[in-house]
From TrEMBL:
The gene is nagA. Its EC number is 3.5.1.25. Pfam families: Amidohydro_1. GO terms for molecular function: N-acetylglucosamine-6-phosphate deacetylase activity. Keywords: Carbohydrate metabolism, Hydrolase, Metal-binding. Residues 45-361 form the Amidohydrolase-related domain. Belongs to the metallo-dependent hydrolases superfamily. NagA family. This is N-acetylglucosamine-6-phosphate deacetylase. It comes from Pelomonas nitida.
Amino acid sequence: MQLEGDIVTPQGLVRGHLDIAAGRIAAVGGSPIDAARAGEGGRAVLLPGFIDTHVHGGGGRDTMEAGDAIETIARRHVRHGTTAFLATTMTAPLDDIEAALKALGPVCRERGAQSARVLGVHLEGPYINPERLGAQPAHAIPATLAEVMRLNEFAPIKVLTLAPEMPGHLALIGPLRDAGIRVQLGHSAGSFDDGVAALNAGAAGFTHLFNAMTGLHHREPGMVGAALAHGRHAELIPDLLHVHPGAIRVALRCIPGLFCVTDSTAAAGMPDGEYRLGEHRVQKCLGGVRLADGTLAGSALTMDQALRNLVQVLGLDLADAAHRVSTAAAQYLGLSDRGRLAPGAWADVVVMDAQLQLRRVFVEGEEIDVVADA
């Protein structure tokens, strides 16, 4: 199979063709062009498939439902260009988390037809600070290594959100890192010093930067200050509700490995109305998702809209925006064969027009029916 258009490659924008064989990219050929010319003359724009490390739900379903919910979620998000993602849990009683992970395990091992690849799990709770729950239910508990590794047996935990200031948590960061789990700091009331100590202990990044953590003040820099001063990686929600564009620009200048996530809920890809988020009921209205008291509760964002926000509102060039919604997350997860359009990589491809409207999606070489009802 051959796709033609303006191709975002690791070396820059190329006008030419991309060859796909046996689910992988066989070759990329063409001539370099300036990014400002992408899509001119009605040409298709080819980008690496989006990678989202923070997905709670979509298509009306929530990961904590267990059962077949993840299949609906994977089919819905792929129709917005997300070719791979981490299924993300909520803070809940351990029995509920275990049930969710048992349902996720088989899907992590084998991708369903017409679906995104589920790379593993982002365990966002329950090891957070009860003072910084955000929209998380009130089931926060201290972590133990034995408990995390037991949960990891049900489904592979790739990312774990931790409040480092909680008793015993700092000492867990190194062993979790050594077990292949990336610790992200979040839902935290910790100080700047707590954040720096956690990074020195091996923490990899920050969960939804700026949200549900101590903010930056010039005399108390907080967890945000630790991220901006010392962080190499962080996830950020670019729905323009969770974080002001000015703060996003600050993060882009400070954190080299900043990548974008949706923190999407069951409301993603759905009309306004009431949806589930863990044990909560949330309301989608005016583009946001909130608890009854008005607290932002995840989002209804999809990754194609995240890309458009980066380019059309933040002013990023297309290559940088594609990096933030795909390549940077792949690098963070240690994936050398995703998040890039290069020979040998999986053929995860998003095809858009010059206005960055999605036209076609391929996952591991399989073309997705982007107009099908998930």
